[in-house]
Prior knowledge:
Blueprint: H1 5-9, H2 21-36, H3 62-73, H4 78-103, H5 109-120, H6 123-127, H7 139-155, H8 159-177, H9 181-216, H10 218-245, H11 248-252, H12 258-261
Helix pairs in contact: 2-3, 3-4, 4-5, 4-7, 7-8, 7-9, 8-10
Amino acid sequence: xVFFRQQILSRFGYLSGDRYDGVIxxxxxxxxxxxxxxxxxxxxxxYFYPYPNTLGYNEGLFLNGVLYSFFRAxxxxxxxxxxxxxxxxxxxxxxxxxxxARRMLKLPFxxxxxxxxxxxxxxxxxxxxxxxxxxxxxxxxxxxxxIYNAVQALLSQQRRRLFIVGSLAALLFAAWLxxxxxxxxxxxxxALVAVxxxxxxRGVPGLRQxxxxxMANKGALCGIAVVAALSLLPFVSVYLGVGRQRPxxxxxxYIPSLFDxx
Length: 262
């Protein structure tokens, strides 16, 4: 309510988008609504008609589109439905951070609540609200919690739980990639860095324990790998196609250098 106070106090006369990126986002979400009604092919937004397979020219916004279609089905207009999607995604981030802080960091409820509030009221998120796809960073605590629970199941050799939770993590990450490549990519980069540091801190005994756990649960891990590969097929089919049509030099221009990352 604090984050979206301007919208609420104006009875949604004020919206977070603008006449450029905001309208593009609503058009793309309306595309997903048409897809779920069987009116459009999922890879071909109609605003580039008659050119096909142009979804990859922008963020996919798949998860946003699922939520948006629900609100549109309830007869909300396009711009209001878009705003409700943003509020829902922010709410998911708040609850996800609260749960992750309690489960992973073992924080008391009051401190977990403070952390969730700071994460939700992030000023840079507020200032970039016209690029609402960046709100998908709210998925980070949920994805982290799923990975954490999968690792716990791996180390305790709970194969069924490992497969279920690991598969959910793979499915969510694939859907996240199809929603906003930027935030999912940087989550993966920093998660990899965090895992490498954990392995360094745990040393040889930790590596030995992890190796034994992997060998003991190789069947469940192979199952997760299959789920991950299948769930990534839509993303690969959309964005590798764009990579072939657009010069890589143009794409690489927007990628941070190693110095930028540090």
